[in-house]
Amino acid sequence: MKACDAESLADGGAEPSASLHEQLAALRQALVFCPRDDLGVVEVRGPGARAFLQRLVTADLRAVPPGAAVPAALLTPKAQVVSLLRVLVHGDDALDCVLDRARVPTVAALLERYSIGHAVSLGAPAWEVVGLYGPRLRDCAALGPMGGLEPYAHTRLAAAGAGWLALGDDELGTTGVLLGGAVDSAARAALEALLLRAQATAVQPAALEVARLEAGTPRMGLEVDEATMLLEAGQLGAVSFDKGCYPGQEPVCRVHSRGQVNWRLLPLRVTGTRVPAAGEGLAHPAMTEAGRITSAAFSPAREEVVALGYVHRRALETPGPLALAGGGLAEVVTLPRAPGLLIPRTGPRYAA
Length: 352
Known about the structure:
Elements: H1 20-29, E1 32-35, E2 39-45, H2 49-54, E3 68-75, E4 81-91, E5 94-100, H3 104-114, E6 121-123, E7 128-133, E8 154-159, E9 162-168, E10 176-181, H4 185-197, E11 201-202, H5 205-215, H6 249-258, E12 263-270, E13 281-284, E14 287-299, E15 304-312, H7 313-317, E16 322-324, E17 329-332
Parallel strand pairs: 1-11
Antiparallel strand pairs: 1-7, 2-5, 2-6, 3-4, 4-5, 7-10, 8-9, 9-10, 12-15, 12-17, 13-14, 13-16, 14-15, 16-17
């Protein structure tokens, strides 16, 4: 598999000559990169920035030190998810929210409405984000300090002719870092040269999608949307139950105090090689509408179809198979976790 070549960032990662299986093998064994066009940022600045976000997000930001980040969410008053976030703290007067790019306009507009009377300014810069993943990341001298970032640690650095924000990223179940910044053509060319020196290989988003499903990481727009309750999506690590009020707090605390949710987002193994479509229904002897697939892909390493989907608690409490509407069966599985990695956001489960 070849290392990055000219224009590989500008055209979406270049088309690697390697198969999907080889790309995934490189991700698990070496060092790969891929543009993360799915991610964007909303900046919150001003002397009241931390206090402002503290009143709005599900996480407790009070004790987060500069250089650290936490998983969080913005909710409606009924506790439905506006967006999942990674909130990066630079100081009391500067925070960044990294989120799904499609949700940036909605989140920016919502924060703008809440900002009246607060000493904050908001921005949604045109970011370019590149993800680097693989076990070689930590010992790659060419990448300098960014390779040693732990999940949810972040730093600003000058690299490849531009200023970058580097964030440790564990959402693929392997060592990773996100590089984000406003990149022009000269900085992009310099970054390509840096990746070449690091012997990083280009992979396509399809490889990252398989790795995401293998790791059980939910994604906005697929597993989570504005009809989703946060705890149904298993995002317990994004919630503080000791902080003050925020929109949606009362329903979240009420569900948590009961110790159960009706629907649970879970990792699934699908029989056969047919990849079920998003939204395909699941049936169970206990109930006809027992769940639905949210996303699925064939895993070459496991030689099986891996998926995420919502399953009703009655189907989990009653023995019997989960039958796919299009044929075949699905089975709830327990995902392996890479030793040494912190995965506070990605475990799609709700513990009472």
